[in-house]
Amino acid sequence: MRLAEHLIEFRNRLIISAIGIVIGMVGGFLLTDWVFNVMADPIREIAEARNRNADLNFEGITSAFDLRLQISLTLGIIISAPVWLYQIWMFIVPGLKKNERWYALGFVGTAIPLFLAGVWVAWMLMPRIVEVMLSFAPAESANFINAANYYKLIMTLCLAVGIAFILPVILVMLNFAGIITGEAILKGWRVAVLLVALFAGMATPSADVLSMFFLMAPMLALYFLAVGIAIINDKRRARKHKKFEADLAAAEASAA
C-alpha cells in the first residue's frame, strides 16, 4: 500500500472514530447528573457521618455547563471505545505478521482490563482521600469544594493509576521483543519499589499510609508477575535457540 493510500485510510478511520466519540458525548451528556451525584457521594457521606458541612461548589455562571462538557467528552471517549479501538486495530493489523497479531491481541487484551482495574483501585481510594483531606478543616467550618478541581483530581488519579497498572505489560512487551531480559528487570526491583512508593505518595494527596499501601500492593504484584513472565520467556527463547543450534550442527555434520 502506498503512502497516499495509508494517509487516506488513516483519515477515514480518524473520521469514524471522531463520529463515534461525538455520538458517545451525546449519550454521555444525558448521564452527567448521575456522574455529579456519584462524584459528590463520598463528600456528602463523609460530611454527614462527621457532622460537617461539605459539598461541591460551582464558582461561575458557566462552571456547571463547562464541567458537563468535560464529563460528556470523557464519557464519550469511554462509550465509543469499541469503535476507535477497532479502528486503531484495523489500521495496524495489516502490517503485522500472523504471530505478531496474536502477540498484539494478547497485550491489548491484557492491558485494557489492567487499566480498568487501576481506575477501579483509584476510585476505591477516593473516599479515603476525601475523608483525610476534609479532616484538616476546622470542626465548625464549611468546606465547599470546587467541582471542576475535584473532577480533575478524580480524573488525574484514575488515569495515573490506570496507566501505572499497564506499565508491567510494557515491560513484558519489551522482553518479548528482545529489548530487555527478565534478569535485567529483576535487578531493578529496588528502584521499582522506590518509584512505586514515590508514585503512590504523589497519587494519594492525603499522604495516608493505608491508601498508599493499597495502591502499592497491586502495582508491586504486577511488577513481579511481569518479572516472572519475562524470565519464563527468556528460558523458552534460550531452549529454542539451543535446539536451533543443535539442529544446525546436525545438518552441517550430515552434509559433511
Automatic annotation (TrEMBL):
<keyword id="KW-0813">Transport</keyword>
<dbReference type="Pfam" id="PF00902">
    <property type="entry name" value="TatC"/>
</dbReference>
<dbReference type="GO" id="GO:0043953">
    <property type="term" value="P:protein transport by the Tat complex"/>
</dbReference>
<feature type="transmembrane region" description="Helical">
    <location>
        <begin position="12"/>
        <end position="31"/>
    </location>
</feature>
<keyword id="KW-0811">Translocation</keyword>
<dbReference type="GO" id="GO:0009977">
    <property type="term" value="F:proton motive force dependent protein transmembrane transporter activity"/>
</dbReference>
<dbReference type="GO" id="GO:0033281">
    <property type="term" value="C:TAT protein transport complex"/>
</dbReference>
<keyword id="KW-0653">Protein transport</keyword>
<comment type="subunit">
    <text>The Tat system comprises two distinct complexes: a TatABC complex, containing multiple copies of TatA, TatB and TatC subunits, and a separate TatA complex, containing only TatA subunits. Substrates initially bind to the TatABC complex, which probably triggers association of the separate TatA complex to form the active translocon.</text>
</comment>
<feature type="transmembrane region" description="Helical">
    <location>
        <begin position="71"/>
        <end position="92"/>
    </location>
</feature>
<feature type="transmembrane region" description="Helical">
    <location>
        <begin position="213"/>
        <end position="233"/>
    </location>
</feature>
<comment type="function">
    <text>Part of the twin-arginine translocation (Tat) system that transports large folded proteins containing a characteristic twin-arginine motif in their signal peptide across membranes. Together with TatB, TatC is part of a receptor directly interacting with Tat signal peptides.</text>
</comment>
<feature type="transmembrane region" description="Helical">
    <location>
        <begin position="153"/>
        <end position="177"/>
    </location>
</feature>
<feature type="transmembrane region" description="Helical">
    <location>
        <begin position="104"/>
        <end position="126"/>
    </location>
</feature>
<keyword id="KW-0472">Membrane</keyword>
<keyword id="KW-0812">Transmembrane</keyword>
<comment type="similarity">
    <text>Belongs to the TatC family.</text>
</comment>
<feature type="transmembrane region" description="Helical">
    <location>
        <begin position="189"/>
        <end position="207"/>
    </location>
</feature>
<keyword id="KW-1133">Transmembrane helix</keyword>
<protein>
    <recommendedName>
        <fullName>Sec-independent protein translocase protein TatC</fullName>
    </recommendedName>
</protein>
<dbReference type="InterPro" id="IPR002033">
    <property type="entry name" value="TatC"/>
</dbReference>
<keyword id="KW-1003">Cell membrane</keyword>
<dbReference type="GO" id="GO:0065002">
    <property type="term" value="P:intracellular protein transmembrane transport"/>
</dbReference>
